[in-house]
Amino acid sequence: MGVPIQKIALDAYLAWENEQPEKNELFQGEVFAMVGARRVHGIVAGNVFAALKERLKGSPCQVFVEGMKVQANATSVFYPDVFVTCDPADLKTDYLFKAPSVLVEVLSDSTQAFDRGLKFAAYRQIAELKEYVLIDPDTRVVEVYRRGADGLFTLNDFTGLAMLRLTSINCDLTAAEVFEGVDGR
User: Does some domain include residue 183?
Assistant: First the structure.
């Protein structure tokens, strides 16, 4: 996360952000310019998007890839790398999604601490969120935080396993397809 640009209310942020050439996230009322991503980040996000798009065909859910805004709470809006929503209102919106079932963040050195900490705390406020997926393309760490019946999130570590299971949307992704092309092959 970069340096905050200014403090702003949600409605003012949304009106302003929709006019900007570059993406900016809102966190606790402060606007942060997003920085560019590395090649491996784009590859992994694209791989996850493609795999989920194929598996969700014919289902009531849709997958979206970066560039789409998710509102975590009244003062925070993010651009997750990939997310899935099955919510009827979300499936009709043009700009702002509020009820994703699955959120995926591809980690980088500059965003890792924020994605694991404060961003995850904000995302947990989304009542419909069932799974939060963190993928590190450098170390091949794959973690899924899954919301239990008690409302608490539990870590499910898929690092080193051949299969990643997303129970909330009944999808399996192989590690091979998630990391395909990361090594330049």
Answer: no
